[in-house]
Amino acid sequence: MRVPQPHLPAIFFLAIQVPSFFLSYAALARLHPRCPRYHALISVIDEVLGRTYTAYVISEVALSEALRRYWGFDAFRPLQKSIVQGLVEGRDTCVVMPTGGGKSLCYQLPAALLAGQTTIVISPLIALMQDQVAQLTQMGIAAALLNSSVAANEQTRVMRNASAGAYRLLYLSPERLARADTAAWLQQIPISFFAIDEAHCISEWGHEFRPEYRQLSSLRKQFPDRPIAAFTASATQRVRHDIVEQLRLRDPHKCIASFHRPNLRYVVKQCEARTQEGLLVAAIRTYRDSNVIVYASTIAKVEETVDFLEEQKISAIGYHGKMDPSTRRRNQELWMADDVRVLVGTLAFGLGINKAAVRAVIHLSLPKSIEQYYQEAGRAGRDGLPADCVLLWQKRDASLLTYFIGQIDDAEEKKRAWQRYDEIRGFVESAECRHRRICAHFGEHPKWKSCGACDICGSEPDWLAAPDAAKAPKRNQASMRTCREADSAKRKPKERNVLLGADAELRECLREWRRTAAKQQGVPAFVVMHDTALDELCRVRPTSLSELLRVHGFGERKVELYGEQIVGVVSRFRRRVAVAGFGGS
Ligand SMILES: Nc1ncnc2c1ncn2[C@@H]1O[C@H](COP(=O)(O)OP(=O)(O)OP(=O)(O)O)[C@@H](O)[C@H]1O
Ligand SMILES: [Mg+2]
Ligand SMILES: [Zn+2]
């Protein structure tokens, strides 16, 4: 048998070449400090060596390990891993992923892993930044924000820490980034990459164009060697093209997920004002134990609808741009914490709202565009369970939209507004499968012809056909049952009754604990623990810290912070159930 011999010429070659490469590299840096060409060469070599090194050190195992350690998640969602890897390797990136797809993690995870460096996140809403920074802090990832809401002395503190590289993520508003002093100051920070969230705001063709986003075009010039990553949920091909162009992305890693959300049922119905009210009440009574979002087109309509629902003994809260910020935030938190189930909002409500178990999104008027509709309706069913998106529109909505388009002075903007109008009108009046039509709008062409989950394909909630408030439609009750209930349905009847009651009781105990913990820390309840994590706790009922660490949504830091208390709540509850189940009735 032949024993494999080391390839001597190759070893000899490497022994000579590798050290001489490093020596000449060092010599170049030393001998020609003033020559720009040498510096350019050195920075290229640095870049290549740096990328190879980072990619080597941050292996796939390290990514999965960080996902478990910080987030308490077991697996990446589709596309997440490849986006994270691309960013770790320093590639420009353009991500289009539906609402709730998990875009934040795609830039937060590489940021957490790139030690000693800071990812600059540009985000359009102050509330959104505050929530993300609070959530990251709870996970043990150093993060901060700078915008007009931050007090002057706090800004000085954040800037000092940031200059020392203390944060993995620093959130900035686009206005803040555009300030000349910010750009100069950022040059001192060890930036890993820029993440532009809600990147469609940069395009005039997008439905939420923000002029301040346009200033991001100068990022590439100011930071030529720093990677830029753009993230959005709703971008047509034209908007995507605009994003890449405006941000001057270089050979970007393009990650476009499917726009098809099979767990959503889209239903569109034209109606009159009076029937609309009856339908709304019937709908909300159907989803009575679940969270619902109602979208209205104006502030007056939001207030009117909240009053109307209250008259019907349905508790609801409003949300719109003209509310004072503290009331608006409180209303959002009440709804996020399940204290009030129905929220009626204008389009000011939505961007970045992350609540998993929303069973219905009901629109009371025609949205301005398909993108706007897709983004708002997409707040439903983020937990992957069935949810309804119902658009109840009236003829007069169309007249109102056309009136406002008539008021636009800018000829180009007027043209775009008409195009959006024609598209959404085409959507509501079309006889083509709604899912198909939405996918096609975003440039995707599904193979299937019929989805079985839209009004055109023959699926409608019962309450739409017979708006009788007292009647509980069959399909919704069945489809709205949670997995947990379905699972417990397999058990014996008596045991099931005890457990179903017990489940609700445990959920209530944990919610109460969450409310107190959130209050103590001055953060919203969902920052302490998301609904999905709460549901998992009810299912697993962990009795030790190591069991808790295996529960979805519990990373190391969360367990450290709250583990003892949560295990305490679950244990007390278990003891009570044991007494009720075996000693009672
Ligand atoms: N790999 C994963 N496993 C389980 N849950 C995940 C995973 N990635 C993300 N999530 C969860 O999915 C939810 C939605 O994530 P995120 O807020 O990042 O969505 P998004 O894509 O930014 O949506 P939007 O466009 O609405 O802002 C969050 O609760 C997040 O914790
Ligand atoms: Mg997001
Ligand atoms: Zn269909």
Give an overview of the whole structure.
By secondary structure, this protein is α/β, with parallel strands linked by helices. The protein folds into four domains: 5-67, no CATH class; 73-256, Rossmann fold (3-Layer(aba) Sandwich); 264-488, P-loop containing nucleotide triphosphate hydrolases (Rossmann fold, 3-Layer(aba) Sandwich); 504-580, Orthogonal Bundle (DNA polymerase, domain 1), CATH 1.10.150.80. It contains 26 helices and 13 strands. It has helices spanning 8-31, 36-57, 60-71, 80-88, 103-113, 126-139, 152-163, 174-178, 180-186, 219-222, 237-246, 273-286, 299-311, 325-336, 370-377, 395-407, 411-429, 434-441, 462-465, 474-480, 483-488, 493-521, 525-528, 531-540, 545-549, 556-583; strands at 93-96, 118-122, 143-146, 169-172, 191-196, 228-232, 253-256, 264-270, 291-295, 316-319, 342-345, 358-363, 387-393. It has a seven-stranded parallel β-sheet, with helices on both faces. Strand 3 (143-146), helix 7 (152-163) and strand 4 (169-172) form a beta-alpha-beta unit. Helix 4 (80-88) runs parallel beside helix 5 (103-113), helix 16 (395-407) packs antiparallel against helix 17 and helix 22 packs antiparallel against helix 26 (556-583). The longest helix has 29 residues, at 493-521. The model is unreliable at 1-6 and 467-500 (pLDDT under 50).
